[in-house]
Write a structure and sequence with these properties.
Blueprint (H helix, E strand, L loop, with lengths): L22 E7 L6 H11 L4 H14 L1 E8 H17 L5 E6 L1
Antiparallel strand pairs: 1-2, 1-3
Length: about 100
């Protein structure tokens, strides 16, 4: 008598342990030509900062050479950098904005 054995393999569900997406800091860099008022305008317009927050960040940029404007996902950070850069060029300011991994 022949018995037929079926090879049954049990598929184990493996939960992939995905880590949360990397976050990026968006920073403004000091220069000798961009006015403090313009930096405040950038911070209120593109980073939704209050006047008080924008003034504090602007002073940090002025005194320390750079300051973090916000921390975002990669896509949002890239968009903020592009928006600030385009706005600065459009208004004749050399204000530099860049991002780095948090």
């Amino acid at each position: 008598m022949t018995t037929k054995h079926e090879n049954s393999s049990v598929l184990e569900l493996e939960r992939s342990k995905s880590k949360p997406p990397s976050l990026y800091k968006v920073l403004l860099l000091n220069d000798d030509f961009t006015t403090m008022e313009f930096v405040i305008e950038v911070l209120t317009t593109f980073f939704s900062k209050t006047m008080e927050q924008a003034t504090q960040i602007m002073l940090k940029v002025h005194n320390e050479g750079s300051a973090v404007c916000g921390v975002y996902s990669k896509d949002v950070a890239e968009s903020k950098v592009a928006q600030v850069s385009a706005f600065s060029i459009q208004h004749g300011h050399p204000l530099k904005c860049h991002m780095e991994e948090n």
